[in-house]
Amino acid sequence: MTATILHADLDAFYASVEQLLDPSLRGKPIAVGGGVVLAASYEAKAFGVRGGMPGRRARELCPQLIFVGGHFKDYQRLGDAAIKVLGDFTPLVERISIDEAFADVAGCTHLFGAPAEIARTIRRRVREELGLPISVGVARTKHLAKIASQVAKPDGLVVVDPESELEFLHDLPVELMWGVGPVTKARLAESGVLTIGQLARMPGRSLERLLGPAAGEKLSALAWNRDPRQIRTHRRARSAGAQSAIGRKPAEERVFRPTLAYLADRIGGRLRAKSLAGRTVTVRVRFADLRSVTRSVTLDALPESDFAVKALIDGLPSGQDIFYRVRSVDLADTSVTGEPATGRFRTAPTDRRNGSFVWSGDTAGQGWGIDESRGGMKI
Fold first, then answer.
1. Is 100 a catalytic residue?
2. Alpha-carbon distance 264 to 356, whole Å?
3. Cα 219–Cα 222–Cα 224 angle in degrees, nearest 5
4. CA triplet 91, 95, 96: central angle to 5 degrees?
5. Which of 116-125, 149-158, 196-205 has the lowest average pLDDT?
6. How many other C-beta atoms can be found within 10 angstroms of the C-beta atom of residue 137?
7. Can you tell me the distance from the alpha carbon of 147 to that of 117, in angstroms, rounded to the nearest whole number?
8. Which of 100, 165, 304, 372 is catalytic?
9. What end-to-end distance do the CA atoms of the chain give, in Å?
10. Please, are residues 104 and 90 in contact by the beta-carbon 8 Å criterion?
11. What global pTM score does this model have?
C-alpha cells in the first residue's frame, strides 16, 4: 500500500506569524501572551519555554524573552491561506486546527507527481506565498503521518516507507503518539515504557489495567500503526471556548467572577452568531505550577451566563496565579443539526443586572477564529 496521507503543520505558528509581521523579531526568542505563554518561537523553546507556561516562569528560563500581544485575525487569515494550498491539490483535506490539516493525495498523483513531490511543492508554496515554515509528514495512515510531521520539525519533510514503517515508529518516544499526554507518559514510564516499540510489546491486558480498557486498546493498535480512519472533509465544531489569564491577581471573587462572566459573554455571542446553543459549561482553572482542575455542569435547560457560572464557582479552589479558562460549551443536538436553537443562549435577556448575555456584547473578542485541536471553536 502506498503512503498517500499527508499531515501538514505550520511550525510555531503564532510566533512565526509575529516574526513575519515584525521582521525585527526574527531570530529572537519571543512568546505570544503575557500572564500565560500561548506560543513560543523555536528560539524561546531552546531555553525551555513552552505553551501554557506562566509568563513569570518563562522569563526566569529566558530573561531576554520578548512578549508580544498577538494578532489573532492574522493567525486566522494565514492559517486559512496555508490550508487552501493543500486544497489546490486535493479536495480530501481535513483541517484539525487553525494551523494543521490532513490531506489524502491518492487521487491526484497523476496530476502533481508522487506524494513526496506534492509535499515538497506544498512546503515551497507556503514559504514563498505566505513566508511561513511548514512541516509535512507523509505516511500510510493518519496516525503515522502526524508523527512524521512532528519528527520533521522544524521546517522539514519526512516520508515514511510502508515497508519500514514499524522500524521507523517503534524507535520513537511514546509521547509522540496521539493520546499520550504528561499523565499517561508518566504512568507508562513507571512501567518502563519509554518508546512506542516498548508499548507495542506490552501485553494488552497489562496496558488496559494501567490506562483503562479504551485507552489501552487504542494505544496498542496505534503502536502497531493500525489506524483505519479516513479523511473527513466536514468537521462540525462540538464546543465553543474562551480563555483569559489573570496573572498575579489574588484568587478572590471580585477578580474571578467578572472574568468568568466576560468569558461566558464571549462564548454566548459566538453561539448566537451561528444560531447554536449549549447547556454543558466547563470551567478549567490552571495554577502557576501548571496544576489544573476542571468543574462542569450540564443543565436540563439552556442557561444564562451568570446562572451557569454561579453553579460552578462554589466548587472552584482558591490560590494565587490562577489561569481561568472557560474551556467548552457542548452544543445541543438540535443546534448541531441546524434546527432553531432555543433557550437563553439563543434569545438573550437585554440587561446585565444578573450578568446575563446581551446582544450588545456579542462583538467582544471577535477575530479569534477556530481551534479544532481541542474539538471546538476557540473564541
1. yes
2. 9
3. 115
4. 155
5. 196-205
6. 28
7. 19
8. 100
9. 41
10. yes
11. 0.70
